[in-house]
Amino acid sequence: MSVTYRITLVYLTADASALAPASERLEAGQHSIEDIIRFAEKLLLLAPTAVGAKVEPGFIVHRGDRSYRLAAHQGRIRVHKSVSLFDDYWTADTPAELIELPPFLSAGAVVPTKTSSRPRSARQTSPLRSVLEVAGLFAIAVVLIAVGLRFGLPQKRLSDVPDDITIVQSSDERASVFATVAGSYATGKTPGNSLVIIEPDGRVLLSTIGKDGKPTPPRIQEQARAGRRGSIACVITSFGIIAGTEPPEVVNVGRFQYRRAELGAQVAAPVPPVQS
Question: Has UniProt tagged this entry with the keyword Transmembrane helix (predicted)?
Fold first, then answer.
């Protein structure tokens, strides 16, 4: 029986042939690894057009309780180890190489087939063969246990707010949280480094530092929610938690540390007001 995966399309139409900026997520049902490779091929073709649409298209592969987000980056496919774009990732140079990455290894494995043979008597079975068979079964058991521990553990969805974070309800306190963490933060100072811009009204933009030292047009922009982790101000987005550990100098974007960035004029397209 072939392995299938539940797929959630992100900013894509049902057949992944075009962008769907108005539809953030679309459940696409169960698909084989071959379908996933075809989705990835279409994603690479659509990626250049996503810059103008201000969205980050891709799709999420669900395997048991684990979920992996696939996105295109500079002509290659990144497989993030969760649904967050800030999480660690594996890279496939081509869609066909996805079967070599851990989430899909079992789908590309060849299942041995049984061949009919005449039964042998106990006298024809050598002790050495018996020892090798036992050793082989033990090795298979160890591999199955390792795979179960790696992929079978439960994982929280990104949309779930962690238990240690409290959503801020008061408009005055929301304004205080956004004002605390507002600023431009980057992973480095050179062109190409990732950049997150938090505006005083809570709008968050994901971009990179351009060759001229200014922000490139944002890949993602959205209105965030405000929260607190104890005394730490937090900005809650659909792609992760931004914690103001040492604002305005340092924030943690997911598990990565971003430092204050001195930039030129910010390039940001206006977004329509949020409907309450």
Answer: yes
> Which pLDDT tens digit goes with each residue over 34-87?
999 999 999 999 888 877 767 789 999 999 899 999 999 889 999 999 999 888
What's the rounded Cα separation, in Å, for the pair 94 and 125?
A: 47
Specify the residue for token string 């987000």.
69
CA dihedral for 194, 200, 202, 203, sign (positive or negative): negative
Long-range contacts of 187-192, Cβ-Cβ distance < 8 Å, separation of 24 or more: 187/256, 187/257, 187/258, 187/259, 189/261
Q: Which residues contact 225 (CB under 8 A, 6 or more apart)?
A: 167, 168, 202, 235, 236, 237
Is residue 229 exposed (0-12), middle (13-18) or buried (19+ Cβ within 10 Å)?
A: middle
Taking the domains of the chain in order of start, what are their residue ranges?
Answer: 4-108, 166-260
Structure-token pair, residue 93: 């140079």
Alpha helix ranges (H) inside the chain: 33-46, 50-53, 105-108, 127-151, 171-181
Bond preceding residue 218 cis, omega within 30 of 0: no
Count of residues making up the chain: 276
- What pLDDT shows up at residue 70? 96
